[in-house]
């Protein structure tokens, strides 16, 4: 079977009111892959994610999901067709328990019985969540909250997950654990678009990568090829 792009951005301009951030972004993610977006602070990585997920309307260009135009769709409609988004920073409900957060993760679903079974499935996959099921999410460690948020996103059985900086502020051992989980989700068939500042680690787990600077894509290619150009990437990331 020929590889196909599950997500495509064609000539996207986007920003905040008069502030134009993304300029002529052309980007694609192949079905089944881990595709990373690298770039320094302020490069436009989060703006790219927010534009795909319908939080910001692009001023130009087109976004396709499985070949269909989704440029005008809102977040709730995107969730229903199989796209989940984990934004930068914490996105759980800190005053609710782990279990309640997982139930919230399924909030657009109607199949209540199946939801229970899926939560049990997630407890098998992430035993730490089972252990903490009755603890308030806000009382978990940063790494545990990140795992919970990934599990919440999985409750909708997405075909594509957009993850913005999942390892920010985590201790190195937890970074490894979160990356392992992302790889495991990908192996089970979900396409991942991963925004990361840690280029080296991201390239290790990615199939393909894009490097952004000042709202533009400066470089892209198979992650293995980009790993050979670490110095060029470091320059774009502002590391000397
Ligand atoms: N809500 C907003 N209103 C106006 N400008 C914004 C807003 N959010 C971001 N920007 C601007 O858009 C540009 C890109 O920001 P963005 O958050 O997309 O970068 P980023 O690559 O995600 O950076 P970081 O690595 O720090 O998360 C920056 O110049 C930023 O100041
Ligand atoms: Mg960001």
What is shown here, in short?
With 240 residues, the protein is an alpha/beta fold.
Structural account:
There is one protein chain. The termini are far apart. The protein is 38% helix and 28% strand. It has a domain at 1-74 and 159-165 and 192-240: P-loop containing nucleotide triphosphate hydrolases (Rossmann fold, 3-Layer(aba) Sandwich), CATH 3.40.50.300. The strands form two sheets. A six-stranded mixed sheet has the order 6-7-8-3-9-10, with helices on both faces. The protein has a four-stranded antiparallel sheet with strand order 2-1-4-5, with helices on one face. It has helices at residues 45-52, 75-81, 98-105, 112-125, 127-131, 142-154, 172-187, 199-205, 223-227, 230-236, and strands at residues 5-16, 19-30, 34-39, 60-65, 68-69, 83-86, 160-164, 191-196, 208-213, 216-222. It is α/β, with parallel strands linked by helices and 240 residues long. A hairpin with a 2-residue loop joins strand 4 (60-65) and strand 5 (68-69). It is built from ten helices and ten strands. It is globular. Helix 6 (142-154) packs parallel to helix 7 (172-187). The longest helix has 16 residues, at 172-187. Bound molecules: adenosine-5'-triphosphate (ATP) and magnesium ion. Adenosine-5'-triphosphate binds at residues 16, 19, 21, 39, 41-47, 88, 197. Magnesium ion binds next to helix 1.
